[in-house]
Amino acid sequence: MAKHGEYQVGRGWFDSSRKGWVDKPDKLTPVVLGAPPREDQREQVRAWGKPRAFKEREDMESLIRLRDSDRVEDRQTFDKIAKGGMRIQMHDYEAAKAAEANGG
Fold first, then answer.
1. CA–CA distance, 16 with 102 (Å, rounded to integer)
2. Do strands 20-22 and 7-8 pair parallel, antiparallel, or not at all (unpaired)?
3. Which residues pair with 27 in a beta bridge?
């Protein structure tokens, strides 16, 4: 991918804001730099790569108890409550809980 203001023979100058080529350099969109990041923003970015600690969620634990119950009424209640995305969240929660239990 060409960089903003890069010239190529037969194409012209690349304008990254237009995502295309212009025939004259004075038609290039001016580049305005933003303010430098604040320290709290830098700290937030540094934290992105760090793994988060697992926290138990009471709502997920109660759904797991309903699903794994011996009572038919509890399992039927679970089927009514847990639809689509909630089941995916439960799966992700259980996977994270298992990973935490296995030391990972």
1. 47
2. unpaired
3. none
Residue range 25-42, pLDDT digits in tens? 899 988 888 899 899 999
Tokens (6 digits) for 62: 């109660």
State the residue for tokens 């309903």.
66
* pLDDT tens column, 60-73: 999 999 999 999 99
Token pair for residue 7?
Answer: 């010239």
Distance CA 22, CA 7 (A): 10
pTM exceeds cut of 0.90:
no
Look up residue 53 and give its two tokens: 């600690």
Counting DSSP H helices and E strands in the chain, the numbers are 4, 3
